[in-house]
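QA checklist item 7 of 12: single-chain prediction sanity check.
[x] sequence parsed
[x] length recorded as 133
[x] structure emitted
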Amino acid sequence: MTPQAGQLHHVEIYVSDLAKSRVFWDWFLGELGYALYQEWPQGCSLKFGETYLVLVQTEAEFLADGYHRKRTGLNHLAFHAKDRAQVDWFAQEFVKRGHPLLYPDQYPPPADSDYYAVFCEDPDRIKVELVAD
């Protein structure tokens, strides 16, 4: 498949603890069809089609300030789900795996909602959204 002009090529995320982040992202992206693409001592990438997500260990000198999605920069990453059933399955799995849902009072959305999504945070508190169109 040839990428379309303007299609997202990759996203690179610096993480505070690569091993911890790999547990979350390898599982989450693996369930969505991503596969390990590249791996090196300080990072890895997982690929789906022509798009990939890169995780890189933050250097020690830059760890102190940490990440917060309400500061300038990335707020969250949103991924397509196959359907609402997959969103519901992930919601249960997030909680089982120790990633509490964000906005639990809004999940599940009303059955007649045009927007059906679940939100959680990765180990660095980056908001992750899974949405069924």
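[x] summary fact logged: The first strand starts at residue 10 and ends at 15.
[ ] second reviewer sign-off
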